[in-house]
Amino acid sequence: MSVLCISIVFLQAMSSATYTFEANREYAVSQDQVDILFPFRERFHFPQHNGHDVRYFCGNSLGLQPKSVSYLMEKELEDWARHGVEGHFRAALPWFSYHHVFAERLSEIVGADKDEVVAMNTLTVNLHMLMLSFYRPEGKRYKILMEAGAFPSDQYAVETQVRMHGYDPEDAIIEIVPRHGSYLIEDIDIVNAIIEAGDSLALVMIGGVNYYTGQFFDLEAITKAAHAVGAYAGFDLAHAVGNLPLKLHDWNVDFACWCTYKYLNSGPGGVGGAFVHERHGNNPKLFRLGGWWGNEEKTRFKMQKGFVPQKGAASWQQSNAPVFNMVAHNAALDIYEKAGMKQLREKSLMLTAYMEFLLRQITHLPFDIITPSEPERRGCQLSLLFKDRGREVFEALTHHGVVADWREPNVIRIAPVPLYNTFEDCYGFYEILKNME
Ligand SMILES: *Cc1c(COP(=O)(O)O)cnc(C)c1O
Q1: 241 lies in a domain?
Q2: Residue 1 is assigned to a structural domain of this protein
Q3: According to the model, what pLDDT value does residue 245 have?
Q4: What CATH number did the domain enclosing 33 receive?
Q5: Ligand 1 binding pocket includes 207 (Cβ within 6 Å)
Q6: With a 6 A CB cut-off, is 261 part of the ligand 1 pocket?
Q7: By residue range, what is the domain housing residue 152?
Q8: Residues 211 and 324 in one domain
Q9: pLDDT tens-digit profile of 261-284?
Q10: The pLDDT value given to residue 299
Q11: Are residues 17 and 99 in the same domain?
C-alpha cells in the first residue's frame, strides 16, 4: 500500500490562519482527536450505509436529526394529552408564549437584539410577509435589485410581488450577473448597480450565501449602498444562518428571513425565522399584515377591533405557534448554543480549508471549485463544477456511502458541517475521488 504523505503549508489569501495539512488518514484522525466539537456528532442520528454512518455532506440542504428530538416530542405529546387546552399555560413550555424561547438564541445566531428576531411561519412565507412591508413601490421608485441565479423560490416571490403592484418583472427587476468567465458576483458590481439604479430602486433583496456557489455577500456594504439611494435592504439567509457569524443589527440590515432545516437542523419544513431592525419593528406606522399572534399580547384575548402590533419582529406573526414543529427547533438550538458560534466558525474555517486542500491534490478529474477561495467570502460549502464525469463521480460517492448534493447540469455541492462532520469524513471523500480511474 502506498501511503500518500504530503505535508504542505496551506496559505489562505486574506486570512491570518495558516494550516499545515496532510493528505493522509492518520493526520485527519489526529485532528478529530483534538477537536473540542468532535463529541457533538454523537448527538445526531446518521443515515446508515452498509451498517455504517454515511459521510453526510448535505447539511446545507437538510441538517441531521438531533437524538433529543424524539424524547422532547414525546414530552410535548404528553403535555397535550394531560392538559388539553390548558397546555397553553400549563405545558412545560407554555404554548401561549412558546415562540419566546427562541428570541435570545436566534438573536445571538444572527447578531440582533431579542426583539428583532422571531421564529414563525416558513421561509418563503416570511419573505412575502416582509416584502409586503418593505416593498412599497411608489412613483419612479419601484425596482428590486437581486442576484442572477437566485434560489427559485426567491425569484418567484420577487416576480409575483412586482406583478402584484402592477409592474412588469422584465422592467422592475434588476439582476446582477457574474463577470464574464466567472461564477461569482463581485460585491462591488452589486454596489455600483445600486448606485446606478439610484432613486428608481425600492428594494435590494439578495441571498446572503448563494445556494449554488456558496458565495457569501458583503451584507454590510450592500445595505449601506441601498440606504444611500433611499432603498431598503433585505436578505434571504437560508444558507447563511448557522453557517457563519452575522451581525444584522450592526450592519443596519432592514429585514431578513431564513429557514431552520439546513444548518440549524430543525427538521423538514421546520418553522422559519425573521429579523426586522428595531427602527422598523418599533414603528407601528410601518404597514404589516395583522394576525392575532402579532397583536399586543396583553389584549390578544380581548377579541377587540383594531390591530395593535406588539413590539419588534414578533408583530409580523400571524398564527399561534406551530408547537410540534418548534420542538425540533428548540432541541436543535440547545445543541447549537452549547457548541457556540465562535467555536463552530473556527472549526468550519479549518474543516473547509482541509477539504479544499485535499481536493487540490486531485489532478486527474476535470473539476473546478467555484466557491470563493477567500474564507471571508464563504461558509462551509464547496461547489465543484465538473467539465465532464460529474455524474459518474457523484454515483461513485453515493456508492461508497457519501451523501452529497447534485445540481444539474454539472455541480456537486458538499458542506462539511462543523457540528457533526469530521476531518476523517473529508479524507474519506477525497480517497474515493483519488481512487477513481
Ligand atoms: C432552501 C431555500 C429556500 C426554501 O424555501 P422554503 O420556503 O423553506 O421552502 C428558499 N430560498 C433559499 C435561498 C433557500 O436556500
Answers
A1: yes
A2: no
A3: 97
A4: 3.90.1150.10
A5: yes
A6: no
A7: 71-337
A8: yes
A9: 999 999 999 999 999 999 999 999
A10: 84
A11: no
Does residue 84 form part of some domain? yes
Say what the pLDDT of residue 17 is: 66
**Co-location of 145 and 257 in the same domain:** yes
Determine the angle formed by the axes of helices 219-228 and 187-197, rounding to 10 degrees: 10
- How far is residue 397's CA from residue 44's CA, in Å, rounded to a whole number? 22
Whether the upstream peptide bond of residue 409 has omega within 30° of 0, thus cis, is: yes
Three-state secondary-structure class, residue 214? coil
Ligand 1 pocket: which of 62, 259, 264 to mutate (most atoms <8 Å of CB)? Answer: 259
pLDDT of 300 > 90? The answer is no
| Rounded Cα–Cα distance for residues 333 and 66 (Å) | 10
Across 212-309, the runs of DSSP E, i.e. the strands, are: 232-236, 255-258, 273-276
Nearest to 380 by CA among 335, 337, 423, 350: 350
d(CA 225, CA 313): 24
- CB burial readout 213-226, b (16+ within 10 A) else e: bbbbbbbbebbebb
- Among the listed residues 73, 93, 211, 199, the one whose alpha carbon sits nearest the alpha carbon of residue 145: 199
- Average pLDDT for the chain: 95
Binding site membership of 76 for ligand 1 (Cβ less than 6 Å): no
Ligand 1: does its nearest atom lie under 6 Å from the Cβ of 259?
yes
Q: Which atom of ligand 1 is nearest to the CA of 236?
A: 13
Q: Is 393 in the pocket of ligand 1 (CB under 6 A)?
A: no
What pLDDT score does 301 carry? 77
In this prediction, residues 213-231 reach a mean pLDDT of 98
Does 2 fall in a domain?
A: no
Q: Are 47 and 404 in contact (CB under 8 A)?
A: no
User: Is-above-0.85 flag for pTM?
Assistant: yes
In a 3-state reduction of DSSP, which class is residue 315? helix
Instruction: Look up residue 365 and give its three cell numbers.
Output: 478529474
The three cell numbers of residue 153 are 423560490
Last residue in a domain, options 304, 319, 337: 337
